[in-house]
Structure formats: C-alpha cells, structure tokens
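Holo prediction. Input below; ligand is flavin mononucleotide.
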Amino acid sequence: MTNTDILAALQWRYGVKTFDTEKKVSEEDLATILESARLAPSSFGIEPWKFIVVNNPELRQKIRAAGYDQTKITDASHLIVIADRTDAEALTGELVDRTAKAQGKAPEDFAMLQNMVSGAIASKPEGMARDAFLTAQTYIPLGMMIETAALLGVDAGPMEGFDPVQVTSILGLEDKHLRAVTMLALGYRGDDAFAALPKTRRAHDEVIEVMN
Ligand SMILES: Cc1cc2nc3c(=O)[nH]c(=O)nc-3n(C[C@H](O)[C@H](O)[C@H](O)COP(=O)(O)O)c2cc1C
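Structure of the complex:
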C-alpha cells in the first residue's frame, strides 16, 4: 500500500449514518479491525478497556433506544461497544503481570514499573480526573479501528451520541468494572446522503505548525 493509497482510503472514509442492512463484514476483516484495537498503545501500557461485539438483535434494539434512535446501531453489520475500566486500582498489577509474562521474568523484577504506574494513577484525584485519564485511553483504539476499517474498505460509524449509563446497564457492564464510552458501527454504506457531502476539514496550516 502506497502513501497515496492510505490517503485515498482516509478521504473515502466518513462517519456513515445509514448502513446497508444486507452486507456483512467478513470474519477476517472483523478480526483484523479488533486486533488493531487490541494492539493500540495506551499510557504506560495499562490498556484500561474492553471491546464488546454486540450481535444480539434485542440488545442492539435496546441500545438504539438509548442512542437517539440512530439506525446504524441496529442496521450495521457489527456493533462494537468500547468500554473503559472503572477499577483503576487493579490496572497496575495486571500490567506488571502481563509484562513479566511477556518477558519471561518474575513480577518482582518490575517493582519500579509498579511504583511509577501506581503513583501516576494515584496522583490523579479519584473521580473526574482519574476517570478522564482512563476514558481518554479508549479513544486510541477507537481511532485505530476506524483507520484499519478504512484501509480494508470497511465503513465505520463512530458514536458518542448515546446515554452511556443506560448502555452500561443494558450490557450488564457495571459488575465487570466497565463503563461504555463510545460505540463503533461497522459495515457498508447504504443509501446515505452523507456519502456525497464534501469532506470538511481545517486547512493544513491551521492545524499543522512546524517549529524549526
Ligand atoms: C468520538 C466520536 C463520536 C461521534 N459520535 C457520532 C454520533 O453519535 N453520531 C453520528 O452520526 N456521528 C458521530 N460521529 C461522527 C462525526 O460527526 C464525524 O466523524 C465528523 O463530523 C467528521 O466527519 P467525517 O468523519 O464524516 O469525515 C462521531 C465521531 C467521533 C470521532
């Protein structure tokens, strides 16, 4: 894939409103899109997230009712709910165990990492600031899935337009220390007037500044 191909895919991509109800994303493409989320970077590598693929039609109907009746919630081929973790205290230990396992070492070898990460999380006051820090991480895999989908020619519709408290409850996420943050509909654009609209973006020089 050339640079031109990548930019063409990103120009082709837009936030789809109306999906084709008949066309399904292949298992291979879905797996690749989800893998790009799993491989996303996060602050310290804490990965405070979960990606829930909601296939159950009744659940999707309920989520749609909590999502301003956006048709893509039920009509897209797949719906992924991106959740963040509410149990910040568990994340450091999990990171240390994961890192130790990957490197074939003992968790005790990572005492410095343990102190640094738990200190960084503790330094954010419990409540809004800590929640915002964890929630912010989940936008990275969301972005990676949107880009991977575009590179595969799969359409995506990211969503924040829903009641996260209701969606968290519909999926029974509280008991799993999870909270719905965003959602991503995947599939293929249907008869969607938005597809024909020109892309609206700030000019290059407005958002990119080079300091030499
Ligand atoms: C985090 C996030 C949340 C969004 N929420 C919604 C949404 O709830 N409903 C919707 O129709 N579009 C939603 N969008 C799509 C944006 O409106 C769209 O990406 C933006 O206007 C730029 O246009 P484009 O993606 O079509 O180029 C969301 C996009 C992002 C990144």
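Strands lie at 49-53, 78-85, 155-159, 178-187. That is the main takeaway for now.
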